[in-house]
Write the structure tokens for this entry.
Amino acid sequence: MLSISRFLSRVASNALNFALVLLVVQETERALMSGLLVLALVIPATVSGIAAGVAADVFPKRLQILIADLLRAGACLVFASQEASVIGYFGIAVVLSTFTQFAGSAEGAILPHIVDRQYLARANAISHAVAGTAQIAGFAILTPLALRVFDSPDTLFYISAGFFILAGGYALAIGRQAKPPVVDQAGDLRDPWYAAGWREMHRDRRVFQAAVELTVIGAALIILGGLIPTFITDVLNLPVEIGVLVLLPAAIGVVLGLQLANFLAHRIPITLLSRTGYLGFIGCLALLTFARQEAEFLGGYGAFAWLDSVEIGNFDSTSVLAATLVAPLGFFYALVAVAGQTVLNDLVPLSMQGRVLATQGAMAAIASSVPVLVAGALTDLTGVTFVMAVLSLTIAVVAYTTIARPGRTRIE
């Protein structure tokens, strides 16, 4: 039931987030504004996210998910009844993101309560697979259907409200939870509510390392979220609603990566899994950045001459190459995500799961807040290819400084 609830709410949430970015770009025609919209979606994780994590550790988790889903449904219905505006888009983004923090924190914290420890890696793999599938369903199906076929943003908000209500209903049917001790670690109750997750991370270097790695990859995805619409229009020369189909192979890569990560999580050093994921992710992102130049270069060689003749509707050789590259990009992302999440679920006490996961989300939001704005402004000035190249290099440098040194070993 958790997977169904999470899938329904994630489909609606991803569809709305993507639609809001598209609507803001359509109204303003500036990459900086898409960056600001993405920032409006992630800022709530810095404050409300931590509060949501505390709530997830203190209050009934199923009830918290239900209330958050119903509040999101209500926000969608209210927004759909109002006249649309750019300010309104930013306002609903902040409201939805705030309520999403409470649902997401409870969903993340409830998993170790209903799944035995030896199955956590598999459960995390399934959880990420559900999230990835929901993302594709939201981005590539629901948003284009509402905005392009029906040409009605209001329709999207009404459908999403229905999804949130259904998700809340399924949340009530989530299985029985294990009851953790009132205090797992000395000092849990002595720390301020906003610092408890941060303090818990520092109790175990392996936990903090995993949180940092998840923060780096999470911040990278947030920044990419602001750049993708411009990449699709400027590099792939496609309408965003059509060009998002190029990203579909990423779902296949994520599923394959999750399967491998699930198998290897407790069989090899977790650092090896994470480092492999980071190296592959950085390499694939760099290749994706220069997809047009690479397609033109490869088209000049006999074995790849067919690239120059590719013309499938609006899709050309660059689109084909980009679609090929996003599959391994998703694969390597999955390795990093499952490795980090498994460490947190394995080593963080049950009574602290919500606060630690929320704090990690806040770290990603803070780490990406300024870069999102800088990336948007630079894209307007220099183009998206240059900005994505800088992003690839920055991730490589940060990843090297945070994970290159030896440390974590296999979680026994």
In short: The radius of gyration is 21 Å.
